[in-house]
Amino acid sequence: MNKNLLWKLVLSVGILLVFLFGIFGVPQSFSGQGLLTAMTNRIHLGLDLRGGTHLILQVQVNDAVTIDSDNAIEILKEQLNKRKIAFADISKPDPQNNPDRVVLKGVPPDGRKDLLDIVSERLPEYNLSSGADNTWTLAMKPQMLSDLKNKAVTQAIETIRNRIDSLGVSEPTIQEHGLGQYQILVQLPGVDDPGRVKDIMQSTAMLEIKQVLGGPFPSEQAALQDKGGILPADAILLPGHGAPGTSGGDQSWFLVSRVSAVRGKDLRDAQPSTDQNGQPNVRFELTGEGGQRFYSFTSAHVGESLGVVLDGKVQEVANIKEAIRDTGEISGGSMSQQQAKDLSMILRSGALPAGIKYLEERTVGPSLGSDSIRHGVNAAIIGMLAVLIFMLVYYRGAGINADIALILNLIILLGFMGYFEAVLTLPGIAGVILTVGMGVDSNVLIFERIREELRNGKTPPSAVDQGFSHAWITIVDTHVTTIVSAAILFIFGTGPVRGFATTLTFGLLANLFTAVFVSRLIFDWILSRKQRGEALSI
Amino acid sequence: MEFFRNPSIDFLGKKWYFLAFSLVFSVAGIFSMLFWHGIPYGVDFRGGTLVYVKFSHTPDDNALRASMDRAGLHDAKIQRYGQVSNNEVLIDLDVQETNEQALDRGKTQIINTLETNAPAGKLDLNNSSSLAIKNYLMDKDPMHLGSDADQKYTQQAQAIVDTRDKVQGGVLSSFDQLKGPVDPAAAASLPEGFFLSDFGVRNVDIVGPQVGAQLRKQALLATVYSLAGMLIYLGFRFEWIYGVAAVVTVFHDTLITVGFFSLTKTDISLTVIAAILTLIGYSNNDTIVVFDRIRENIKLMRREKLSEIVNRSINQTLSRTILTAGLTFLTVLALFLFGGEVLHGFSLALVIGILIGTYSSIAIAAPILVAYQDWRLDKGKRSGGAARSGQVVTR
Q: Is A437's CB within 8 Å of B331's CB?
């Protein structure tokens, strides 16, 4: 064997070993089971194969804006009162679509300078513009507005991740979903109970601790009647835990303060615990700043009630027994151990700055997943065997060459997946099968060309040479265009479809090496062992 | 072994037959899309709720439909899924029952409807999560475990769920089936708190209207970008007319494939779009192989007419075209026959697409080149300019 062939052979074997390592790593044992375990450790199965839950949710970013502008209104009122500037009305004209817009009416002309001062000192993130009849409009600066919205999404991702982590799910995916605005993709492999996950995430929405001013009332009407038909301006009516929409008749309503005493971000820690009577409760700790605020609030309201409000629903109502600075306990009448655990988890992992809405939910049962694997692998083996056998029958000697190239192609493809921690999905398995079909195209192109050259009377070495060099151009063109399709699929697709694009791309890249380089090497080796003029088996 | 030795078929001479064939199929597809079945969007694109249910016995479709009607789910479509012996049913709700305020309402309604005669106070073991089972076992403590109860019962619950899902295919029909992998004491404690319904939910897809619209847009964009990518690459590698011919060809393939889905009312899901994009790649492969040969032959046979060159090129690559198509078809057929129900639409699109894609590179792409050339020559003659044979589409 000549030197050139030798180093090519060494290179090929080296690459084979590198990719075998990519598939298996260093397996514990070399039995079938050991190899399978080693392989599944490195190549991860997608949700559709191992079962799990897939959710797409949308962050209601306007919630975060509303909170901020509510706060701005409070500051504005407080400062205007402090400077003794009269005003007729302050309101939001379009809270649905432009929650950042605040309109201030009836400010006397001599209050102009003070108003400008207030906004530039206390509300620098807002623009102030004047209209007719002493009307002023406050709107958030566009840059600030988009920052706030994006921050709401990042924070929501962070919070959801914390919560999912505390559920102990392995390999969860929680990321911004690039296809839509303010959307988050959550994938939880192996989770067979999406209901519980959603419960925990659903109640993530917004956490506030508010003063309870009245209630429980059996209905909204009853609450209104109690207050003489008009709600106090600084209060809102919220439903109790028996969530609205369910058929349960034990719906209750609470009148709570509009402004919260403590928000989710003020909490430092919360743990389930038991009180002196052995009843489950939740102990919580506040941050320094939050603690200070809570202290001044609770010391002024001892004996009154506090409500834990999640997602606009009053979850628990507790009495303020004493002024609380930074540690306290929440004990409801009949909290179960699981409830205490869930509530503390919700408190602990922080609250979302905005509510969330579910846009898509998919659950794959594990039984379907294992069926899919079986079907997919069966189809792959049958398809592959059919191709391998056909190549042997049709091209005889050269068929072995093509078969080696194909098997090597598969090894490299799987090795790539191992190295890149790519996810194998059911369409991904289809991609593997398709790679076999399309990969063999390169061999067919080359072999047909060699046969043609041989028919035209060329000697075997020159026919092989011509065959490869002519086919090479075509092979590059065909591969590039297919990889373009696959890349676009990868960019636009999610989950299973992405898995397909990945295997197809890796398969085609591997094919460039195996069908051209390795196949050529085998031909050269065969030719080097033949006498001059001896026929080539093709 | 060899199938073709020096074939010399006059493909271009048959171009009118090809055109008629393609027109019939394209027009039939377009008509179906516009006036008959429309584009049969799957749940991914139209939004809605799909629940895959497996029964322990042969389900009675009419009874199912009646009970869905009673529950107020009048638009529920019920169809058998996969082989009849699998006892699987697909329940499909429209997007109206999938509003974004309560995304999973439709699913809950379906499950409640199927569970109507459940014994009070008991849970359905066939539709309980491993966590619910673990919590039950923790409460009952049938194995009288001490400190490591949590871990032990988690294992037991997992064994129960695994037996149900992986051994029994999703539905238990008797508690006796748990014997063996599950601890006898734990298994014996189950009937007190659980009952066995006659079904298990295997898979749920709920897509809200917003995501549906978003995915529709993305799928369209992906297809358009893919075509544009081809056009640019081929325009750069060959000449713009080659790019145009390839793109028209691929568009023709896509149209016929989607038309076929419309005619047969097969749902187009996300994976079908993936298959169509693959097709675009595959059909292009085929076209490029022929084009490459044409380019090579134009240099070799300067005196020949373009139609002659094109015919020769198709014949020279015919053996390869048929072989590759056959082999790819073989793998796709394996996928179609053995790949399972989940991949049905995907492999169907590929089966159709590979047939059409192979046909079109011969019957559509090459004739476009020749037709363009004839048109240029014709125009040249009429305007009195010199006819430049062969050279129009050469480099």
A: yes
For residues B19 and B92, state if they share a domain.
no
Mean pLDDT computed over every residue of chain B: 85
pLDDT at res. B358: 92
Considering only the beta carbons, identify the residue of B164, B319, B327 that sits closest to A437: B327
Alpha-carbon gap: A199 to the closest alpha carbon of chain B (Å): 12
A103's enclosing H/E stretch is strand A102-105
What is the spatial distance between Cα A527 and Cα A522, in angstroms, rounded to a whole number?
Answer: 9
Confidence of residue B392 (pLDDT cuts 50, 70, 90): very low
| Structure confidence at residue A248 as a pLDDT band (50, 70, 90) | very low
Residues of chain A with Cβ-Cβ distance to B104 below 8 Å are 198, 358, 361
* Short-list A286, A265, A283, CA closest to A273: A283
Q: Identify the closest residue of chain B to A537 by CA–CA distance.
A: B1
Q: How far apart are CA A199 and CA A206, in angstroms?
A: 14
**Pairing, β A183-189 against β B194-195:** unpaired
Q: What is the pLDDT of residue B352?
A: 94
The pLDDT assigned to B248 comes to 93
Letter for the amino acid at B278?
T
- Cross-chain residue pair A500–B271, CB shorter than 8 Å: yes
Closest CA to A438 of A503, A360, A526: A503
Q: Is A377 on the interface with B (CB under 8 A)?
A: no
Q: Work out how many domains chain A is built from and give that number.
A: 3
Mean pLDDT along residues A336-347: 69
Contact check, Cβ <8 Å, A393/B1: yes
Domain of A483, CATH number, reads 1.20.1640.10
Are A295 and A394 contained in the same domain? no
Per-residue buried b or exposed e for A396-428, using 16+ beta carbons within 10 Å of the residue's own CB: eebbbbbbbbbebbbbbbbbbbbbeebbbbbbb
Pairing relationship of beta strands A207-217 and A136-140 according to DSSP bridges: unpaired
CA B206 to chain centre: 18
Q: CA B171, CA B167: separation in Å to the nearest integer? A: 9
Average pLDDT, chain A: 81
pLDDT score at B237: 86
Reference A192, options A372, A367, A343, A426; nearest CA is: A367
Pair (A391, A521) in one structural domain:
yes
CATH of the domain at A93: 3.30.1240
What is the sign of the dihedral through the CA atoms of B89, B92, B97 and B101? positive
Confidence of residue A281 (pLDDT cuts 50, 70, 90): confident
What whole-number distance in Å separates Cα of residue A28 and Cα of residue A40? 13
